[in-house]
Specification:
globular; 7-stranded mixed sheet; single chain; binds fe (iii) ion; TIM Barrel; binds N-(iminomethyl)-L-glutamic acid; Urease, subunit C, domain 1
């Protein structure tokens, strides 16, 4: 039990039962100035209120934290990452500087296949060690919920190794972790596409013992909407809801196939037409954009403002991976959203917290300041406002990060 007093601004307050925000709601967030917040012994938010009320006094037995005017907001939910990988792809970074595109690097046998070779040559313990370092880095930067994908094994044993490592991370970190089976990330070496798709379908029952979701890279040069549909149907037989990669390299039809299969999210969306907006309207699927990969690859940013203007919600995530977005700093994602996609800080906050929690199926337990939800919180240094976070995007700002009530 702990009581945080003298919070300059408590932002991200959402009524109980609101699981996502869409359209005009994206521009709203509950805010309380000069506030307190109490964390229950089980790590959930017990209550919060204004410093003028009598509850702003510690019980005598609880820890009291003086926020000294700092801002308190929900921790970031990173609903799309590939942080289990081995080594790095620095060589490709140089290729990219010298003018090669993501597709050209992949066509030369680099890219995802390069990470698969590295991963399959790395022991499970070493993979865990390298990956958990990235989780620590992300938590220090304010992330309190993380979705992690497989997809660098590209063979049954490699994929299972990744899923076991994700499980081990889940058991060893205080952040909330969800696992996604992305066997169809690229075609594994030595397979035809048809044989590989079948191999991943056959692996589904074993993968489903560890995974919460199923993902497919439905894009130009990777998997088609038909391949995707087959894999998603196999996933559904084992209770795996889709979260898919779509429309990064082309208008792939991935959004439509995702929506048709009840995807929780469709992610990337750098290339969309109005048909994608139409397909998403009225669905339960959260469009998720990954400005870190637009920035790193030099490809278009998603049309977030138009999506919101048309009444949709959006989520934002880091896509932390060695090939297209080698960083997991959600504050930088927020800055890119504001600077490059012209979202307001409040729209970006909703996209990085509640909507991202929705996109990983956890918005009933985290992603906002709501009584009964996990106390997954960021406490800033004194004097910070929401707008300053993406504005002075390199200035140290975090004082502590609470994961289920503990910092
Ligand atoms: O989300 N686009 C597909 N997958 C990842 C990149 C993976 C990689 O290059 O290693 C992404 O950008
Ligand atoms: Fe990705």
């Amino acid at each position: 039990m702990a009581l945080i007093l003298n919070i300059g601004e408590l932002v991200g307050i959402v009524p109980e039962g609101v699981l996502r925000k869409q359209g005009a709601e994206m521009s709203e967030t509950g805010t309380l100035r000069n506030a307190w917040l109490r964390i229950a012994p089980d790590g959930t938010i017990a209550d919060f209120g204004s410093m003028h009320t009598s509850e702003a006094i510690g019980s005598g037995t609880e820890e009291v934290i003086d926020a000294e005017g700092g801002l308190v907001m929900p921790g970031f939910c990173d609903s799309h990452t590939h942080i289990v990988y081995s080594g790095s792809r620095e060589g490709e970074f140089l290729d990219k500087i010298n003018g090669l595109s993501y597709e050209e690097i992949a066509a030369r046998g680099g890219g995802i296949l390069n990470s698969a070779d590295l991963l399959n040559a790395t022991s499970e313990d070493e993979l865990f060690r390298q990956s958990i370092e990235r989780v620590e880095e992300m938590m220090a930067a304010g992330t309190t919920a993380i979705e992690i994908k497989s997809g660098y094994g590209l063979c049954p044993e490699g994929e299972m190794k990744m899923l076991r490592v994700i499980q081990r991370i889940r058991e060893n970190v205080p952040a909330l972790v969800r696992a996604t089976f992305l066997g169809a990330h690229a075609i594994g070496r030595g397979y035809t596409k048809e044989a590989y798709v079948q191999e991943m379908i056959d692996l589904m029952p074993r993968a489903a013992e560890y995974a919460d979701f199923v993902d497919v890279f439905c894009d130009t040069g990777f998997f088609t909407p038909d391949d995707t549909a087959r894999i998603l149907e196999a996933g559904a037989r084992y209770g795996l809801r889709p979260k898919i990669h779509a429309n990064e390299l082309g208008v792939s039809g991935g959004v439509q196939v995702g929506v048709a299969h009840g995807a929780l999210s469709v992610d990337h969306l750098e290339q969309t037409t109005d048909a994608e907006i139409e397909a998403l309207t009225g669905s339960g699927t959260m469009p998720t954009m990954l400005p870190g990969s637009s920035f790193f690859l030099g490809i278009p940013f998603g049309r977030a403002k138009e999506f919101i203007a048309s009444g949709l919600g959006i989520a934002l995530a880091s896509d932390y991976n060695p090939g297209s977005s080698p960083m997991g700093d959600m504050r930088f994602v927020m800055a890119l959203a504001c600077i490059k996609m012209r979202l307001t800080p409040i729209q970006a906050l909703n996209a990085l917290t509640l909507n991202a929690a929705y996109a990983m199926g956890v918005s009933d337990v985290t992603g906002s300041i709501t009584r009964g939800k996990r106390a997954d919180l960021i406490l800033t240094r004194p004097g910070w406002t929401l707008t300053r976070i993406p504005y002075t995007y390199q200035t140290p700002w975090i004082r502590s990060v609470f994961k289920k009530g503990r910092s």
